[in-house]
Amino acid sequence: MNKGLIKLTGVLSCLLLFNFSTAQTKGQNTLPKWAFGGFVRPQNINPIISPDTNAKFFDPMSNKMVGWEADYTFNPAATVKSGKIVVLYRSEDKTGVEIGTRTSRIGYAESADGLKFNRKSKPVMFPGKDSQKEFEWPGGCEDPRVAVTETGTYVMFYTQWNRKIPRLGVATSKDLVTWVKHGPIFRKAYNGKFFNIPHKSASILTKLEGDRQVITKINGKYWMYWGELHVFAATSTNLVDWNPVVDDKGELKQLISPRKGYFDSDLTECGPPAIMTDKGIILFYNGKNHPGKGGDKRFNGNSYCAGQVLFSSNDPTKAIGRLDVPFLRPMASFEKSGQYVNGTVFIEGLVYFKEKWFLYYGCADSKVGVAVFDPHKPAPPDPIPLL
What we know:
Helix content: under 10%
Strand content: 35-45%
Number of helices: 2
Order of helices and strands: HEEEEEEHEEEEEEEEEEEEEEEEEE
Radius of gyration: 22 Å
Distance between the termini: 35 Å
Shape: globular
Mean pLDDT: 93
């Protein structure tokens, strides 16, 4: 080999090494100090909840036995009761042909370690011949989020779906099994101005008190973030009746919105209960990537990835920090195959348990997964895919 070729080969090797190193650097994902993560998927555990064709339930609306979780089980809420983690998950039967056309109910599963679950054979929340029939039938009860008060009352926010208008409903319980439905949360606000607009996905504000994650207040009122396309807010004095936060024109105040060119370019949908920290309020949300030029090409079009935004504790409508890339994204096979083939990690349940944070999420609208964040031993967040 002549000297010129040797020199050229050396230069090319250096360029290749430089490009490889740059690519590796670009693939790394670093979180700001205020953010939670990274979350680790435990090995050989996921998915933790999958459809069960053997589970039968007498449906009071159709007056027959149905396979209430035969088709899909996904989008879970989570909380702690009596030293165990309880996951409340959405299930779909086989009465329709696609998402939104079947009936959804909410199932119950509990675990002593947060990883291996025992399930009840019947749903704990479902459409019935009750005061909420007009809002919940035939679509059902969808996508719960749950948190607990200091005095031990569990509060569930869920989507009431009558296949006409999705509405946020609220229910309360002392044991997570028997629920009292209170109906649509915006029914009374502003003389019903927002009652008939589509609204879903509520993330009530919580905080840690010792080792308990409980619902908290700001300036004497309960606070929540909510919304699917944009993120809005609402306040309450009784956890049942909520007033959306409006601007000086009396319209819903948008707190964050989709960003062109980012993983959340199509939707910013609220996730599990928000958390008050010493850095501010962290809202976990689900970002949907635009399938066209408006999206981030590093992520699959129409995929759902998980983001975080930091709001000011002094002004909870003011965003002061936001992740530019997701901390959790569809990577495992069960997160990219199923009912939603574009890939989904749809986060709805986050609980503090044995000094760790357990995050429960829907996998491709088909199954339930878990990822764990240990604040004492933080792991890297999901890597950024390379173009």
